[in-house]
Amino acid sequence: MSRILIGTTNYWPEPTGIAVYTTDLANILTKDGHEVTVLTSLPHYPWWRIPEEYKHLGPGQSEHCDVRVIRAKHIVPSTMNVVQRMRFEFSLWFNLLKVSKKFGSEEFDLVIACIPTVAAGIVAKSIATRMKIPLGLIVQDLSGAGAKQSGLRGGALISKLAERVEGLALHAADSLVVVSPAMGDVVTQLGVEKNKTSLIYNYSARSIFTEDRLKSKEKFGWKKDDFIAIHTGNMGAKQDLGNLILASEYLPKDSRVKIFLVGHGNQEKDLRGMSFGKANVSVMDAVSDEDYSALLSAADLLIVNERSTQLEMSLPSKLTSYLYSQRPVIAAVPRGGATWKFLDGVASLVDANSPELLAQEILKLQSDPAEMKRLSEVGLEFAQRNLSLEAGRNNYRAWVKNLLIKAV
User: Fold this and answer.
1) Is residue 11 located within the same domain as residue 138?
2) 147, 158 in Cβ contact below 8 A?
3) Most buried among 63, 80, 107, 254, by the most CB within 10 A?
């Protein structure tokens, strides 16, 4: 079997987002008999700090599920602006590159990188070029487009720099995976040949089990008569979760609707401040993998929210778990954007940055159990048809197999 290096900024034990997929990829390739090494960062996302329980996973080499994991030190900024983002990227690039120079010239047969960040892509390109081996690139997101659309102060400057450097990795790759059709369009616009690109949706890498709703509500201390609407995952600029807090202000004072924002991120402190003292919205810490199914089962409604400028970004990874949970989904996202197109006909859709309309739609669904049931059913059907664990893993296996053929 082959020796494969995966370069990624996000990996186990990070509980959400890209880390779920890079970890699963490393594990399935290992189970298939490949010798897998992961070059990655310190565990920092979505907290934007290194949690106390993971500080033992510092720089150096360890092993997890028969995968060799090599971590590089780097800066972890607690707040994000143009200067901090550039420091973060440069720190990652410098330290990942430094570690990669210790690899022997014939140590691997294939390099796979997952972006963002820019650093992971560029370092993987450097390794592949030095060893004269194929480079595969998984495009979960694009830092250039992301900075432009995220609303981050100084985003235009980051965008120009990131697009230029990111383009080097995109054009150097022998084959690319994109996780949404919209992302594929962006990659093509950047000059990458269409025949180099494969579409593989983010699949249900996290097992979701449907549990009793009332027992699940009780587990989290919620009243059985409350209508629980939950948003899970990262609390960053592109999620624009202040929109949910504003939506709560349009709910009647006696409303049984309770909105919970569950997770962590660089906007968490601000969101906790905005929600303080409000009766219908709260911020909660992320739950463990073991409790995630119960959390989704406790919900009457699951929420996706995006910034109004978030047109060309990758699809939120939470969607697979949401749709498999057999709970109805409401999405407040840009009309015509990647998430809107993906969920059209599958979820209740509301224009982004329209808190009053969002509140009205939540109340409408609360009063329409038949529509809630219909959305749950079509969501599960869509997930089983397009996002299954088996299909996703087999697609990646085939992609890696084709890359390894080029290594011969």
Assistant:
1) yes
2) yes
3) 80
